[in-house]
Write a structure and sequence with these properties.
Layout (H helix, E strand, L loop, with lengths): L1 H4 L9 H21 L6 H10 L4 H29 L3 H17 L4 H17 L4 H24 L6 H27 L4 H12 L1 H19 L9 H30 L9 H24 L28 H23 L1
Helix pairs in contact: 2-3, 2-7, 3-4, 3-7, 4-5, 4-6, 4-7, 5-6, 8-9, 8-10, 8-11, 8-12, 9-11, 10-11, 11-13, 12-13
């Protein structure tokens, strides 16, 4: 299974991406072969294939990376071939020199590999004359431009829906975790129940990572995309919501950990603990309220009709045996209150 995971993705790339790559490669091959007679237009086809990326921003990056790499590789190969002739060892020297130049110039890994590959292909596919070198550079530029144009014509899809689903799932889990924690404060808990509560709370961390990655992909899909201008406000709302939820995840996990470490069955008789539990339910309500504002449902009542329930908590001094736990819970609860109050203050 590990061997398969090394070259298989968890899901197939979209058919649109496959079609765009095939169309760009074919057009680049035909156009470059027509404009630049001579050797097969391998450089143009490779450039077009690499430039077609899931987003236009990535296409621009690949086009620059590919063109710079080819120019550097062709120049190095041509210079060495003219200086030392077509000997076999020149190919090896060219590859080593290309990698050395890329390292000295602090090129990216992709550009460095392209420099070496281009030098190798120039020496392997034809005589490295000045005219040959110039033709290969022009061929690469043609392929890169065609790849970008094809990607622009078949506009890449926006990746906002996965980001929205990831943020919505995280918000729902934060609210559910607050409710579960409140229920645990209100009723006696067994060690197994506390363990389950702790494990469930910790599962929110990978959800934060997934939501952050999804928002990053969404931002990438909007860059340079003609349809992206109308959706930037939605992306900003998702980013703002994630920025609110991320610290709350840390606070909820901290509260759960404090309860796990310092649990005592007598907690249910502590008035302050019961009051904290009620505030946690209110905080869960307010998290859902914020999430409805971020991803409104036309079938649901407007956000303004759902009152915010979170309010300052006035408590009496807890029992001496519980003051450490109560203090920890109160501090995290204060931070959650402050975080939830920020959207309403803007």
């Amino acid at each position: 299974m590990r061997l398969l995971a090394a070259f298989r993705a968890s899901r197939r790339q979209p058919w649109l991406q496959v079609v765009k790559s095939a169309v760009a490669t074919a057009i680049a091959w035909l156009v470059a072969g027509w404009l630049i007679p001579g050797p097969l237009p391998v450089f143009a086809a490779i450039a077009a294939l690499l430039v077609v990326q899931p987003s236009l921003n990535q296409s621009v990056t690949k086009a620059i990376e590919r063109t710079v790499g080819v120019v550097a590789g062709v120049v190095i190969a041509s210079a060495l071939s003219l200086a030392f002739g077509p000997a076999t060892w020149v190919v090896l020297v060219a590859v080593v020199a290309a990698l050395g130049v890329a390292w000295a110039l602090r090129m990216t890994t992709g550009t460095a590999n392209q420099v070496a590959i281009s030098a190798l292909l120039v020496l392997a596919l034809g005589a490295a004359t000045p005219g040959y070198a110039v033709d290969r550079v022009l061929e690469t530029i043609i392929g890169a431009v065609i790849g970008f144009v094809v990607n622009l014509v078949f506009v890449p899809p926006l990746a906002l829906d996965p980001a929205r689903r990831a943020v919505d799932a995280l918000g729902g889990e934060v609210a559910a975790s607050l409710d579960r924690l409140a229920d645990a404060l209100a009723a006696p808990q067994t060690p197994a129940q506390l363990e389950e509560l702790m494990i469930t709370a910790r599962l929110m961390r990978p959800m934060v990572t997934s939501a952050s990655d999804a928002i990053g992909s969404a931002a990438e899909s909007l860059a340079l995309n003609p349809r992206g201008r109308r959706r930037r406000e939605e992306l900003e709302r998702l980013e703002s919501t994630l920025a609110m939820l991320s610290p709350m995840v840390t606070q909820v996990i901290g509260m759960t950990r404090a309860l796990y470490d310092r649990y005592d069955v007598s907690l249910v008789d502590e008035p302050t603990v019961r009051a904290i539990g009620e505030q946690l339910h209110r905080a869960a309500h307010d998290v859902r309220r914020v999430m409805r504002r971020t991803s409104p449902d036309p079938a649901s009542p407007p956000t303004e009709s759902i009152p915010a329930l979170t309010s300052p908590l006035v408590i009496a001094a807890p029992s001496s045996g519980h003051w450490i736990l109560v203090g920890s819970l109160l501090e995290d609860l204060r931070r959650i209150h402050a975080t939830l109050a920020e959207p309403d203050s803007r």
